Each structure stands twice: as structure tokens, then as C-alpha cells.
Amino acid sequence: MEGDLKVGIVGFGYWGPKLVRNFAEMSGVILEWVVDLDEAKLGKVHRDYPGVKVTTSVGEMLASDVDAVVIATPIRTHYKLARQSLLVGKHVMVEKPLTDRSEHAEELVSIADRLGLVLMVGHTFVYNGAIQALREIIASGELGDIYYVDSARLNLGLFQPDINVLWDLAPHDVSILRYILGMEPLSVSAHGSAHVRPGVHDVVYAEFAFPHNILAHVHLSWLDPCKVRRVTVVGSRKMVVCNDVADVEKIRIYDKGVERTYVTDKFSDFHLEYRYGGVHIPYVPFREPLAVQCEHFVSSIRHGTTPTTDGREGLQVVRILEQADRSLQEGGVRKPLMGLLDGSRLVGAGKDGMAVSGVAHGH
């Protein structure tokens, strides 16, 4: 499309102000509307961005000539707002997760396809330079065969009123795991505990089984004194740690490992060698991932291309979260994912199902 792209944003809570800032500063974009039910928040928008229209009515914004709608509201409202927006011909970006039910996500994907509209999900870490570098390191084979992945996403809060910590934080980890490994998980199990509000899990441990005997463990918590955003990948040759909380040196590659010196059937001949090599810290250029995500949304609309994290990617994540939540409610019973997931398109997937480099073009 030609000319400035007109954007409306629904929700001015946690993510809303960051989205408003990014779209307001983007060239070739006019931030036309901000919608929120809180008049005080709208007053702040009016003071900080006097040229932006504000309203408590989603319908008023949808009746205007905005080209695209960005939804940053509680998860339970995503389906209704996205559906309304798509049906009146607006391109849509929804903050993660796409919906709280897979059948709703399927319907949104179907509507977007039928009307030729862009539907994108805010899996922000896919647009994070450190996570992109991590994917490329794995794809290069430098780590050798991947043994397992360990992910920790911990903080004190932010407690959500209508969802547990799995639905709040795990969308990040599920999208990261699929992205860096370039394959779909085969099964999931989850267990946890509810300490602050009865029945609402605030601590969760989830385990995902991937092809090639790769296990991924995810630790999620709203009850940790330290903010942790860390992904560790252990391979047969090397290991790598991605620490997103670090100001610099977000990626560290460790030349460490353990090897059997030779193979024998005799227990007395069982020997291991431990390798303690150096640490390599690659340079990772950094841009605000949310800015990259917003630019990618606009670029996808302008050029009629499929976003890296389109509606189908969002649907896959919702399906995985549903099975993980069922496992959580049933005390950790392993739930199969084979047959539930569409393996026809996977972000970064190569011919053998492993990740390849250079996927996120135009970021």
C-alpha cells in the first residue's frame, strides 16, 4: 500500500505505552487512535501525544479509516477484539498469546486468510537479536548434537487477574524453543503450585520433548526475588547461555563438555574426559525487539508478505499451551502434541526440521 499507514491501538496498560511510543516514532506511520476504558490513561495519552485521538469505544475507532489495529488488552478479550477488527477490514497485531482457546485462534486465522489481511502475534523474543543469534549458533552445528535446553523466566509479579503464570509467561518460551530448534515438540508435561491465589498457579515447571531425544525444561515464576530471563543450550561439543537481562554480553559460548575416551563393555574400563575450554562472547547488535516487531508488522502490510510470527504461529503456540495447562491441572500427566500441531510451516525450519539461519528477513 502507498501513503502513511494509519494505526489504532487498543489497550494502554503494560504494553500499550511501549506500543504507542514505537508507532508514534515510526516514519510512514500515523498513530491515529488509542482506545482504553480508563479515562485517566487516555488523559495521559492526550497530554503526551496531543495529535492522537482517544476514546473508550472500540467501535468508534473501528468505524474510522485506520488501516491496522494493535491489541494489547487482557488475553480473554483478544478473540473478540481481533475478530471485530478483521471483519471490518483492518490488519491486526495481537500481543501474546493470540487467544486463550485454539478454536478461537483457528477462526481468526481463517478470517484473515479469507479477507487477505495480515494477522500477526507479538512473540517479541523472535525479534530479539540475542535469540536470533542463538538460533544461528544452533543451526551452524557449532554446539554439536543438542542434548537439552533449560529456560528460566522468573520475576516478582506481575500477577494477572484472569490467567496463571503458564499462560502469562510460557508463550515466550514456547515461541523461543520452536524458533531456535526449528521443530515442533512431541509432548509436554507440567506441574506447579499456587501460593497467592487458590487454584491459580504462580510457579510452573514444564518439560517439552522434542525430536532427536532433545528435552527442554522451562521454569516459570511470579514469586522469585530476582528477574531472570535465561536460556541455556547444552550440546555434545559446546554449551551456550543467552541471558537477556544482561546489559551487554547477552550470549556466551562455553567450550566445555564431557567425552568418553573409548567405548568398552567392561565397567572397569569406563573413563570420561572433561573439557574445560575458553568462553567466546560474540558481538550481538541490539535493537529494541518491540520496535523490530512493530516495523515488521508495518512492512508485512505494505508488501503483502507473511509475518514471521503470523496467525498460524500464534495458533501453534496456543495449542501447545492448552495441552501444557491440561497437564498442569492433572498433576503433570504427559500430554501428546503430535497430531495437534500443523507441521507444514515452522519458523526457521530447514529440510530436516532443524533450524536454519537467515530466516527473519527485513528486521
Automatic annotation (TrEMBL):
One Pfam family linked to the record: GFO_IDH_MocA_C3
Highest taxon of the source?
A: Bacteria
Q: Where is the Gfo/Idh/MocA-like oxidoreductase N-terminal domain?
A: 5-123
Molecular functions per Gene Ontology: nucleotide binding
Q: Which residues form the GFO/IDH/MocA-like oxidoreductase domain?
A: 131-240
* InterPro entries listed in its UniProt record: Gfo/Idh/MocA-like_OxRdtase_N (IPR000683), Gfo/Idh/MocA_Oxidoreductases (IPR051450), GFO_IDH_MocA-like_dom (IPR055170), NAD(P)-bd_dom_sf (IPR036291)
**What protein am I looking at?**
Oxidoreductase domain protein
